[in-house]
Structure formats: C-alpha cells, structure tokens
Amino acid sequence: MSSAGYCTVCGTMLQLRRPDNDTRDRLICPGCGFIHYENPKILVGCSVTSRQRILLCQRAIEPSRGLWSPPSGFLECDESLEAGAAREVFEETGVVIDPELLVPHIITSLLDIKQVYVSFRVDIDDCIVTPGHEALNAAFFSESEVPWEQLAFPGMREYLKLMFNEHADERYSLHVSRIADAASTRRGFHLLTDRYQRHLLK
User: Fold this and answer.
1) Contact in structure between 116 and 42 (CB atoms under 8 Å)
2) What confidence score (pLDDT) does residue 179 get?
3) Residues 20 and 46 in one domain
4) What confidence score (pLDDT) does residue 128 get?
5) Range from 1-15, 77-91, 128-142 carrying the lowest mean pLDDT
6) Domain count within the chain
7) How far apart are the first and last CA of the chain?
8) Which domain holds residue 174?
9) Residue 199 predicted with pLDDT over 50
10) Are 60 and 91 spatial neighbours (Cβ–Cβ below 8 Å)?
11) Band (190; pLDDT cuts 50, 70, 90)
12) Cα(82)–Cα(96) distance, rounded to whole angstroms?
C-alpha cells in the first residue's frame, strides 16, 4: 500500500485504515470519505514471429535500458488489450500488425510491482523493422542469434525458450504465471493448433 497522499476530491490528507466490511487497509479521506483504491496497472505485449525468428527491441528507456525484450508497454484508457499490444509493437519497432490476428499467450501477475502482464503472439510474413523513439534497436532473431546475456526483466530467458519451442512444434498453450520475490510459477493450458482453430471457425 502506498504512503498517504492527498485526496483528489477535496485535497485533505489521506489516512490509511480499513473501511467497514472490507478486508484490506485503504487510503481514505477523513474530510469527504472518498476511498482511494489502488489497483494493478496492465501491461500488454506481443511476441511477433516470422520464419522461426522472434521480434525483439533494445530498450531506450528505464527500466532495463539497453537490454532486449519483445515490444510491450502500458495499456491506455479506451483501448482493448489487442489494440494496445499492436500499438506497442508499432511504436517500438515500426511493424504493423492487425489486432484481430493476435492470440493470447501469457498472463503474468507481477506482484512486487503491482502490475499484470498480458502477452499475445502472432506469426507474420517478412517486414521492415524501424526502431521507434523508445527503442535503441529492433530486429528479428533466430534462437541462436538472441542476445541471451542481455535480456530485460526476470523470466525473459524462460519465456523466449518457451516461445521458440512452441513455435517449432506448432503446439501452443495459454500460460498463467506469477512472479514475486524473485520466484516464479507457471501453469500451461493446452490450446488447439492455430490451423485447427481456423478450421473450427469456418
């Protein structure tokens, strides 16, 4: 829970206490009674693959400036998860993808930093990559070309290995995981192959 600040309604200093019939302490305004709830922020990302290669960008901003990861960022208001992921891909790499083609792949609870990460996947044809202002560089990498010692964020190595294995086998799962206190857990839910899913939708 964050330290007390000031009420956005009336400007009174907030107090940390437990409301009636609640199970958590909240920041409450003693002046107007408004409860300032804190909720996780939503991060969206996308693993874009093409010809057994994955699209990575070298981050130009903190955290992890200079390190590599798939395109990702915070979801904007009035934006769907898929649209946000597609926007982040374009902003960081210049690659245009159709949000309607994105398939859910990873849902991760980042408990220490109060965020939820939702990642999609999509396979595309060859395209031109143009790093945006939030990326120092961007490119497609085969598994042997990935800068494995320069990856951003905990769990990134495991995630990329998982992505390459699933892509090679053409057998994908929806993975639900959590990361807290430098430890992680993951559950996988098997999905039908993309080809069979398309057949069922016809």
Assistant:
1) yes
2) 81
3) no
4) 93
5) 1-15
6) 2
7) 49
8) 41-201
9) no
10) no
11) low
12) 13
